[in-house]
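User: Can you fold this complex?
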Amino acid sequence: MPYIPHTPDQVRRMLDVVGVDSMSALFADIPASMRPKSFDLPEGLSEDAVLTRLSEIAAMNETGKASFLGAGFYDHFQPRAVRALISRSEFYTAYTPYQAEASQGTLQAIFEFQTAVCRLFDMDCANASVYDGGTAIFEACMMAVRKTRRTKIVMDEALSPIYRRMLSTMTLSLDIETVIVPHASGASDKAAISAAIDKDTAAVVVQNPNFFGVVDDFSDVAATAREHKALTIMSAYPVLASVLKSPGSMGADIVVGEGQSLGLPLSFGGPYLGIMTCTKEMVRQLPGRIAGRTEDKEGRTGYVLTLQAREQHIRRAKATSNICSNQALCALMAHIQMCLLGPEGLRRQAVLSMELARYAQARLTAVRGVDLLNDAPYGNEFAITLPRPADEVVAALAEQGVAAGFPLGRYYEGLDNALLVATTDKNTPEQVDRLAAGLKDAL
Amino acid sequence: MNTAFEKSVPGRTGCLPKRPVETADKILPESLLRSEPPRLPELSELDVVRHFTELSGRNFGVDSNFYPLGSCTMKYNPKFTEDVAAMEGFAKLHPILGQLPGTREWVQGALRVMHETEGLLCEITGMAAYTLHPMAGAHGELCGALLIAAYHKKQGNRKTKVICPDSAHGTNPASAALAGYKVVNVESQDGVITPDALAEVLDDEVAALMMTCPNTLGLFEPHLEEIVRLLREKDALLYYDGANLNAILGKLRVGDVGFDVVHLNLHKTFGTPHGGGGPGAGPVGVSERLVDLLPISRVVKEDDGYHLRYDYPDSIGYIAPLYGNFGVVLKAYAYMLRLGREGLERVAEHAVLNANYLRKRLEGVLEIPYDRICMHEFVASAATQAKNGVHALDIAKALLDKGHHAPTVYFPLIVKECMMVEPTETESLETMDAFADDLIEILARAENDPDSVTSAPVSMSVQRLDETKAARDMVLTEDLAEKE
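Assistant: Here's the predicted assembly.
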């Protein structure tokens, strides 16, 4: 019996101790009328057979192709030591550190993770992560609504449309008004964003680089928000944050991000990592787990989960959020990645990714009929316009074994001919050459 | 022990990608760049490996310790599922490949896993369809509450309240509140929901009842059929919190008895490690009348293979950026294939047998407020010991010294000095006997030598930690610590 240790003799002895004569007597509380109408599942397989089947299914996926897909999810180099360390079972078979003294490994790692992401974004406080970058934006908006007691959220249309859609689902039944400020050919229209902020605004939400890859300085937007006593929420890309002007120095109050780029496998969409940081003033609104430093009675440094009085298990319907578990193992992975790469390693990842994007831009815009969507400064991702619908071009390139990029018409009206192209430190100039050659053929 | 930041040596590097030929200021205007690099640790690879290896030694985990943490289902997770999740064909797959013409063909394996997992979960629970998108149990609850709101809106019902029993997980009322509902409490009578108590709070404004069954006291709700009938009369939906599904696999299908929405904690019931608090996965199943409301995308099988479909006009929309925590779903899928029908039913039988055995072994020494056949977990109370000044928390800490993780303490809130014990099906008789013997010894000391219990733990890397100080001083990062 897989993973069940009892011998038949032990089962009999245990049933005797319980005082019942059979296993089925343990389920006597479930009336016959309520028993399953069917339980038609396949027979169990051996470990070998499952692994064989899953290897075959995995082989139905194509992962060896050149890919220029980003759109918020980026494949950066991960040192092998990361996987080795998070595979230590003391980390991955533990749970939420409810017994702090027996969980110092997890708690100190969370404390260090909080420190690392705060330093990356120049912020004061962080939590131990939420599910993903989109959830983090939603939770940040809820923080702002609670803190300001206002219900209007001003949002840049160049904020990830994937996250904007998540936010509208999660706020379906809430009294929250969202004002979307249109983008200007892929650049964030900062003047229009600032103009949309008024005395009813709880928060303004921007992203750097924005969904089109454009890098900006949102200090002026944050200043306008402050004048109106509204908060600034910024979503940032952690790897590029190692070189870009930091969200904290632009005056953001809450900074969130998708932590997947910090060495997490793409894994077809998850598990990923929602990073949440904020200023000291906002910490009591910050949802989820937070590790704090303290002492034991001998004066030795130790760590505990803290500020728990605002959480759901105590506050129930009045909690800051319903979030219970987090992405602790993913946060650990990201933290180990940051420790291994250090500031210099992260900088190199960022610069390599951005350099290759310039090379790609030059090669692609050399193809007849291909132009940049705009000439704004960008990071490692940029939008081009094509003489044909991007969907068709992507399909044609796929036949040549290249994932050309993200067709922007999926989410932006009028941009059916626009394609978003991303590069990371894992792409090569040779792959870019193949993309350029393929694009030339396809047009 | 020192943090990675304290161990940092300026100029030291661990694992660098190849050197870039440019610096950032040759690429972007200086006004868009940071002036100083972030002060992250500067360590060698061996520094990092030793640091985290040492940290791991300061943790209890299922592989090293008995972990009877009630309501968390800390069972042994087979190792082979990790190999599955790490397979290149899955780990390296960019999620958006599934959405584009031409590249959809590259992800047929992943889509098949999702489609078949949905099918297995439907059969296990008797629901009509599932979304795999919710990324944790509580996220599933929010998704479920939004589905309930969307259902009533579509029906034109005016509903403002959700009922949560006092024995519910704290996330239930929090999720209902987040979905815009007023939360109404129903008090348990002798540990369960009675039709009378329910009838008192049930009116036309009630959108749903959120139920956990077996509930957080480890008890099966005996009035389930009557409860379903009462709710149907008011056109209120029934939500099933599937965190405790381990107990009823093959014994009860919530869809068969009338539940409309259910979330499952894949990481609990279907054998994926809990990762120090995540990631998990919280798929949501629905009955026929809510299928059209499910989040998008959905995986469908057509003649030419698997597709992600988005054209569901009644859908609540996106609850996740992509398709949920695929890596966790994958492990659960492999686990279900391994165990199969018989294996899954055996999970429930042995989980329940173990809980009842341990309950019996402890009933003479701890107060068992509901001392009858329980499901996969039971609740004990240290109220008697507390009169001598030894509290549930002290007993929990003393257990750590014996090498056992503690049960969940002070939850559910309705039992004084509560200790909630869940041994799970993977624990042996010897392990449970050792735990019971150690607990009995601790309880004897609680009477004769209480100081020896209240001073626990003494064998961990730190002694009892000062939680009040942590909340008062709020040192939440290394930076703030330096400023002090």
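The longest helix of chain B spans residues 326-362. Residues 4-57 of chain B form one domain.
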